[in-house]
Amino acid sequence: MQSKENILSCTEEVRVRFNETDPLGIVWHGHYIVYFEDGREAFGRQHGLTYLDIQKAGYVTPIVKSTCEHFLPLKYGETFKIVTTFVNSTSAKLIYRYELFNGNNKLVCSGETIQVFLDSDNNLCLYNPEFFQAWKDKMGL
């Protein structure tokens, strides 16, 4: 459960590129997972938890679960917002929720990803790595 007082999120604006669409000009469903990645990257830059920071600390964070629900289509040339929210957990994992909003501020898509920590020997971490716990403490989580 996440406290409403310490919600960390980030909003990134993206424009749909031609290569992301099908012949009808509608974004192919598989690209929404890429948009989630765009959101995670922006979140990391804004809040000091980038993949390079994680790698520098000696860890990788593969995705073990992703969900995506589609409500409205995005089309070539449209600009949309990705709102990425970190979900605090006591477990050693990164949980992000995503909401994509079109130019009319209507919800287009929502989803979630879960990533786990693996050390340099590819062992699953059962406890928060020290650098991650320090980041959470700094963020008030």
Automatic annotation (TrEMBL):
Domain of life: Bacteria
Record-linked InterPro entries: 4-hydroxybenzoyl-CoA_TE, HB-CoA_thioesterase_AS, HotDog_dom_sf, YbgC/YbaW
Pfam families: 4HBT_2
Alphabetically ordered keywords of this record: Hydrolase
Similarity remark: Belongs to the 4-hydroxybenzoyl-CoA thioesterase family.
PANTHER family, per the entry: 4-HYDROXYBENZOYL-COA THIOESTERASE FAMILY MEMBER, NOVEL THIOESTERASE SUPERFAMILY DOMAIN AND SAPOSIN A-TYPE DOMAIN CONTAINING PROTEIN (0610012H03RIK)
Protein name: Acyl-CoA thioesterase
